[in-house]
Amino acid sequence: MSSWPCGASSFTRSLGQSFLHDGNQLRRIVALARLQPGDRVLEVGPGLGPLTDHLLASGAAVCAIGKRLPAGRSPARAAGRARPGGAHDATSSRLQLIHDDALAWLRREARDWRGWKMVSNLPYSVASPLLVTLADPERGPDLIVATLQLEVVQRLAAAPGGKDYGILSVLVQLGYEPAGSFKIPHTCFFPEPDVDSGCLALRRRAAVALTPSEHRVFRRVVKRAFSERRKKALKLLRFDWPAAVLAEAWPALDLPEDIRAERITREQFIELAHRLAPHDGPP
């Protein structure tokens, strides 16, 4: 395990994050991302900066966003300015630091992240909404590698029919497919979390054939269908769409009348969005 920088003892769980400090695990994360010199990497929640250092060591250019920035690095240095005496910090020239609430910044900026990779030890308290925001089928990063609670990793990688398959699974898997994962012992974090953790890679799929309006309907369908897991999806969707339209769509998609959301596949949800979009009303 690596040593801790000064001030590490002052960190708490108040930001919803335990900080990963085990060098072996950090190297495994970078290896899962398959980084090459010149890659552009988004890091959310850099904390004390141990992962940031490994990302920069790979030769990647890093944009790190968080409320707490790595000690000893300022935005001025990160912008690649010369050090006193004229010496230039080549590593700092590849690092951009943004001091902001990451989730608020990502929603506000709405950038196109195609051509980027996201590699992060995510703050657990906001990991799910962060991933849903970033995993845009059209503008999301080419690859997402995230350290998360193990139960969230399992939900993100879940297949239809399992207990872990739910809203998060479908919304993220719309545009991304699981591409490898591993478990991380809780002893590798400070403070040690009360839950197990894991690292998951998600690779962006080829373009999803949904218009922006159909994408909005897709999200509404998924959220409504999973709103009460014990109830039939058909009954729940009747709250938002005409019964006659649903009665036509159900047999066309070979969906049993008593099917529940956890057995509906990603492809079937996409087709439902296609069929229901022309009949969509106000949310």
Structure description:
- By secondary structure, the protein is an alpha/beta fold.
- It has 11 helices and 9 strands.
- The strands form 2 sheets. A 7-stranded mixed beta sheet has the order 4-3-2-5-6-9-7.
- Strand 2 (40-44), helix 2 and strand 3 form a beta-alpha-beta unit.
- Helix 1 (23-33) packs across helix 2 (50-57), helix 4 runs parallel beside helix 5 and helix 8 (212-225) crosses helix 11.
- The radius of gyration is 21 Å and the shape is elongated.
- Residues 1-15 and 74-88 have low confidence and may be disordered.
Topology:
Elements: E1 19-20, H1 23-33, E2 40-44, H2 50-57, E3 61-66, H3 75-78, E4 95-99, H4 102-109, E5 116-121, H5 127-134, E6 143-149, H6 150-156, H7 167-173, E7 176-184, E8 189-190, E9 197-204, H8 212-225, H9 233-237, H10 243-252, H11 266-276
Helix pairs in contact: 1-2, 4-5, 8-11
Biggest sheet features: 7 strands, mixed
Contiguous runs where pLDDT drops below 50 for at least 5 residues: 1-15, 74-88
Strand order of the largest sheet: 4-3-2-5-6-9-7
Compute the separation of the termini in Å: 50 Å
Shape: elongated
Compute the gyration radius: what is it?
Answer: 21 Å
Number of strands: 9
% residues in beta strands: 15-25%
- Count of separate DSSP helical elements: 11
Q: Mean pLDDT, as a whole number?
A: 87
What proportion of the residues is helical, as a percent range?
25-40%
Secondary-structure element sequence?
Answer: EHEHEHEHEHEHHEEEHHHH
Given the helix and strand composition, which structural class is it? alpha/beta
